[in-house]
From TrEMBL:
Signal peptide annotation: 1-25
GO biological process entries: carbohydrate metabolic process
GO molecular function list: hydrolase activity, hydrolyzing O-glycosyl compounds
Protein name, as recorded: F5/8 type C domain-containing protein
InterPro entries: Alginate_lyase_2 (IPR014895), ConA-like_dom_sf (IPR013320), FA58C (IPR000421), Galactose-bd-like_sf (IPR008979)
Gene source species: Flavobacterium phragmitis
Length: 449
């Protein structure tokens, strides 16, 4: 087995943040694996690894917890339940400076992030206390210590005490050690709060990239990558999918800056193609866009980075398209046009770092010029801002402000639309093995003038 391949498997283990029983067995038995078997393990691991960005970092939501019961280790007739009645005129009181306490039972273990406590005569004196928590009243940990500093001494209203970090516990005890004037301990009201991640994305892929159902259609999949994945030419036709909140870490997700398009070889695709895609198709007010490259000026500018190439049919190369102008299958002149221009990165199978070639394919090169055109000086994981322009029957491609390619069309130019995302190339009739391409887009604008 090659040292390089073993290194790659080790990297997969590190990225996954967990070692499943299956992967662990593979590591133990790696000396018996052939290179082909190890490649299969790598590809399967890449499907199960936690994506580096999933778009599921939620916002923090704070909620008030309701204790199931409350008890104390002594009172003067002002009982513990008074601290949960919502009335600052009632109180729990107990005399003693050696640890009189009141204990709240939440009924089950729950995340706890802060307490609000209102102290009787809290505007006249400081009360010395500790907040202790645990899953058993016989084993409590101090999570807030004001035994020597005390409360503010300036208000009878609820005062907030934030824990250094959220803790999970069933019991919350406030141990009291008298006040700055006497040995009495008196609490009028207690509120316990939990702050947790709501599990919903802070931002959704469509909002990050600035698209809407009026401007772009999303080609994507549902289901786990593999035999259960189902392709939809319009993902919003899938059950339960809403355009504005569509987020799937297998195919279409965000880290808040980039919207990611992830596509696996061996999955299904549209009826007009043999290569799978997770891609955007230009719309005009919700309907299929169609414009003429000889009338007006049509531009698409997008900031893109390609993080990984798939494995091609030959097993050694990898190519994917991340932007294109698509034309009609057959134009008004009877010419089969299909893709006018495809902007692609061309490199090695499963490549995720290093240099690649910018490859221009489609009718404009393959038919007009007799073959695709390639350009060096590009790398995976690097951000580029490209612009495709189609005007006067001529196609232009810019990298930033630098003209990379231009060519006049040799046939009629109607029926066009832009596409952007991740369209795998040269993977026709291959089986799913976990290999994928990954594209990030952070800005996408279209202009028709």
């Amino acid at each position: 087995m090659k040292r390089k391949t073993l290194k790659k498997l080790h990297s997969i283990f590190l990225k996954s943040n967990r070692i499943s029983g299956y992967l662990f067995a593979c590591l133990v038995l790696f000396t018996a694996c052939t290179n082909d078997e190890l490649q299969k393990v790598e590809n399967e691991a890449s499907v199960n690894e936690v994506p580096k960005t999933t778009g599921t970092t939620g916002k923090l939501v704070t909620s008030k917890l309701t204790p199931a019961s409350v008890s104390d280790n002594g009172n003067d007739g002002n009982v513990a339940t008074n601290t949960l009645d919502g009335n600052l005129s009632t109180r729990w009181s107990s005399d003693g400076s050696t640890g009189k306490y009141i204990t709240y039972d939440l009924g089950s273990s729950k995340p706890i992030s802060s307490l609000k406590i209102a102290w009787h005569q809290g505007d006249q004196r400081k009360t010395y206390f500790q907040i202790r928590v645990g899953d058993s009243t016989g084993s409590l940990t101090t999570v807030y210590d004001a035994k020597t500093t005390g409360s503010s001494g300036t208000t009878t209203a609820l005062e907030t005490y934030n824990l250094a970090s959220t803790v999970t516990a069933r019991y919350v005890r406030i141990s009291c050690f008298g006040n700055s004037l006497t040995t009495w301990n008196s609490i009028t009201e207690t509120e316990i709060y939990s702050t947790v991640d709501d599990g919903l994305p802070d931002a959704y892929p469509t909002s990050v990239i600035g698209i809407s159902a009026n401007t772009w259609k999303i080609n994507s999949f549902t289901g786990t990558p593999g035999s259960s994945a189902v392709y939809y030419d319009d993902i919003t036709t899938a059950s339960g999918v809403s355009y504005n909140t569509y987020n799937d870490p297998n195919y279409f997700y965000t880290d808040g800056t980039w919207t990611y398009f992830k596509c696996y070889r061996g999955l299904g695709t549209s009826s007009n193609s043999s290569n799978p895609r997770v891609e955007l198709r230009e719309l005009n007010n919700g309907s299929a866009a169609s414009w003429d490259g000889s009338v007006g000026t049509h531009t698409m500018t997008w900031t893109v980075k390609v993080d990984k190439l798939p494995k091609g049919e030959n097993g050694t190369t990898g190519v994917l398209c991340f932007g294109q102008i698509h034309g009609p299958s057959t134009n008004s002149s009877g010419v089969a046009v299909d893709d006018i221009i495809r902007v692609q990165f061309d490199g090695a199978a499963n490549q995720s770092t290093g240099t690649v070639k910018l490859k221009i394919s489609g009718y404009i090169t393959e038919k007009v010029l007799g073959g695709s055109k390639s350009f060096t000086g590009y790398s995976l994981g690097t951000s580029y801002t490209f612009t495709i322009k189609y005007t006067g029957g001529k196609v232009y491609l810019y990298n930033g402000s630098t003209l990379v390619f231009s060519q006049q069309m040799d046939t009629s130019t109607e029926g066009n639309y832009f596409k952007a995302g991740n369209y795998l190339q040269s993977v026709k009739n291959v089986s799913y093995d976990g290999s994928y391409g990954l594209v990030g887009i952070s800005n996408l604008t279209v202009s028709h003038q």
